Amino acid sequence: MWRLLFLLLLLVACTGEKASKPVPTPDLSKAEGRGEVLFVTHCATCHAVKGDRKIVGPSLAGIAIRASERVPGENAEDYLYESILSPDTYLVEGFVEGSMKQDFASVLTTENVDDLIAYLMTLK
Ligand code: HEC
Fold this sequence. Notes:
Blueprint (H helix, E strand, L loop, with lengths): L1 H19 L10 H12 L20 H8 L5 H10 L18 H4 L2 H11 L4
Bound molecules: heme C.
The site of heme C (HEC) has 25 residues, from helix 3 and helix 4.
């Protein structure tokens, strides 16, 4: 029930944003295009992708570069995978445990996560 309400709220928030600024339609035949749509649905309420504005979480502008430097020995894709499915494994400085949504492992399919990561890797 609460999940449904949460999703509805997300949907409303996202539709509002789309109406106010025209965004080019993502190409759904590409992983990063599908990832962008997933991002708007699941992530954009908490994360900006431009500038350094903090919403609930940190801005993900430049995350493709930062992700490769976060954890020694972990490449960008692995770090992003972990950030989505197990958000508290690495905590971004200044944020507390549990502040990112914790249940993406059961909400998103493996393909969804791959698409999201393809999109995040375009944020250089
Ligand atoms: C409820 C708000 C919220 C939602 C929804 C959310 N996040 Fe986060 N996210 C956070 C917070 C807060 C942090 C910082 C704390 C941490 O490291 O876990 C974070 C951290 C991250 C990081 C690490 C950033 C860095 O600089 O290292 C990534 C990557 C990320 N989120 C991606 C996503 C993606 C992709 C989604 C959608 C599938 C998403 N988040 C949804 C709040 C959220």
